[in-house]
């Protein structure tokens, strides 16, 4: 469950960085000054780990997940409390509702579904009681579903004018602020179990009474984008790769998920600021520079991966260069929900490959590049193995 990178990207940004990396790699460099706004791009695994892990204080400390419009939510102790509580809440939900997944897949994906939206909406449906408990006000449930429809689904923001987006944001934030205020004022009713009922409770309780309600809203939205957005996109990449490589359908689900996250890391670009003048991968940088760690390029670095651009789940059967694999970031700000994210993806991929035959028809477009790396539009058709002509 990883947050979107801090900085949105234009649609051609990934292609530009790929071209620059290819030229730099030929010259022996995987850290370079990009033509993209003068940023320093990091594609070398060693330099990427130094920046994201920050063991030697090479960058200013920050958090991708807790970053908001005006800074970073804190203190760090509150971040840790919220992360632990959220992980526990989601783990319990997934354990209790794992048996619901076959029915959801049959209802929402079969026989035909349009992606990547189908993956986002399936995850939203499966985790809706984690995002908001069933007894939360109906208007708040409608507001959260509208946020997903208008701001999380790939390309959704471009479907509305700037004034419309601004008005909607104002209304959505107001609804969440109002609910946060109500939960802060409400006493725990007798008989209600201890512990958070949903992720909004996690944020309110973990933030403490002094936390700015606007910042709590931003943290809650990070959870919404990370669950319905990032997990749904990661599922979409797995389905697309399986559908376009039917010979890999029998691969272990865990290997399929890891290979999909390698080829198409949803959190593909992490922004950092150097803490001092120094040299990184042979390139001088100063605090005036913006570092961009591109996990997409790290994951396809030909110096660390064989057949880096190919979908080869079997590569995970043996040891792999973990130093060149950063789908959830690295260090103290690694995605707190990485383990539960992978578990849910493995369950869904395992279910699809065990119970269904999956075929896909891409629309011919490339990845949808923004703060998250979303799959292109495609149609998936699910049929039961017994219905396949070759099995008749």
Descriptive account of the structure:
The protein is of the alpha+beta class. It is built from twelve helices and 13 strands. The strands form five sheets. It has a four-stranded mixed beta sheet, with helices on both faces. A three-stranded antiparallel beta sheet has the order 5-13-10. A hairpin with a 2-residue loop joins strand 3 and strand 4 (71-72).
Strand residue content: 5-15%
Principal-axis shape: globular
Rg result: 21 Å
Unreliable spans: 1-9
Output the number of helix runs. 12
Q: Going across the major beta sheet, what is the strand order?
A: 1-2-9-6
Main beta-sheet strand count, sense and barrel state: 4 strands, mixed
Q: Mean of the pLDDT scores?
A: 91
Secondary-structure element pattern, one letter each:
HEEHEEHHEHHHHHHEEEEHHEEEE
Helix-strand layout with pairing:
Layout: H1 13-26, E1 31-33, E2 40-42, H2 45-53, E3 67-68, E4 71-72, H3 76-97, H4 101-108, E5 112-115, H5 117-131, H6 138-152, H7 162-185, H8 199-207, H9 213-244, H10 253-263, E6 269-272, E7 278-280, E8 283-285, E9 291-294, H11 295-298, H12 338-355, E10 357-362, E11 368-369, E12 373-374, E13 378-383
Parallel strand pairs: 2-9
Antiparallel strand pairs: 1-2, 3-4, 5-13, 6-9, 7-8, 10-13, 11-12
Helix pairs in contact: 3-5, 3-8, 4-5, 5-9, 6-7, 7-9, 8-9, 9-10, 9-12, 10-12
């Amino acid at each position: 469950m990883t947050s979107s990178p801090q900085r949105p990207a234009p649609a051609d940004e990934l292609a530009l960085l790929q071209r620059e990396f290819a030229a730099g790699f030929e010259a022996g460099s995987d850290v370079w000054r990009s033509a993209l706004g003068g940023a320093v791009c990091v594609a070398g695994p060693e330099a990427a780990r130094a920046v994201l892990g920050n063991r030697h204080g090479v960058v200013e400390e920050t958090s991708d997940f807790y970053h908001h419009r005006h800074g970073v939510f804190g203190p760090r102790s509150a971040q840790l409390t919220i992360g632990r509580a959220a992980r526990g809440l989601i783990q319990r939900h997934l354990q209790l509702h794992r048996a619901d997944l076959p029915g959801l897949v049959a209802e929402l994906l079969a026989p035909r579904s349009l992606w990547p939206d189908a993956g986002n909406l399936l995850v939203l449906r499966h985790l809706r009681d984690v995002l908001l408990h069933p007894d939360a006000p109906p208007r708040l449930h409608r507001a959260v579903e509208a946020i997903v429809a208008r701001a999380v689904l790939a390309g959704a923001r471009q479907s509305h004018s700037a004034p419309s987006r601004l008005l909607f944001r104002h209304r959505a934030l107001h609804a969440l602020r109002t609910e946060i205020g109500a939960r802060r004022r409400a006493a725990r009713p007798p008989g209600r179990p201890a512990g958070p009922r949903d992720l909004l409770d996690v944020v309110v309780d973990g933030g403490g009474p002094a936390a700015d309600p606007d910042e709590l809203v931003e943290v809650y939205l990070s959870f919404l984008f990370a669950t319905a957005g990032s997990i749904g996109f990661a599922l979409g990449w797995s389905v697309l790769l399986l559908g376009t490589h039917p010979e890999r359908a029998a691969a272990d689900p865990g290997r399929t998920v890891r290979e999909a996250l390698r080829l198409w890391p949803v959190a593909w670009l992490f922004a950092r600021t150097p803490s001092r003048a120094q040299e990184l991968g042979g390139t001088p940088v100063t605090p005036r520079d913006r570092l961009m760690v591109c996990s997409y390029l790290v994951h396809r670095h030909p110096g660390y991966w064989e057949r880096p651009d190919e979908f080869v789940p079997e590569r995970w059967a043996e040891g792999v260069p973990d130093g060149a694999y950063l789908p959830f970031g690295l260090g103290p700000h690694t995605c707190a929900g990485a383990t539960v994210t992978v578990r849910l993806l493995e369950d869904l991929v395992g279910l699809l490959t065990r119970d269904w035959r999956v075929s896909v028809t891409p629309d011919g477009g490339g990845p949808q590049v923004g703060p998250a790396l979303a799959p292109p539009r495609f149609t998936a058709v699910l049929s039961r193995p017994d219905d396949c002509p070759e099995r008749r």
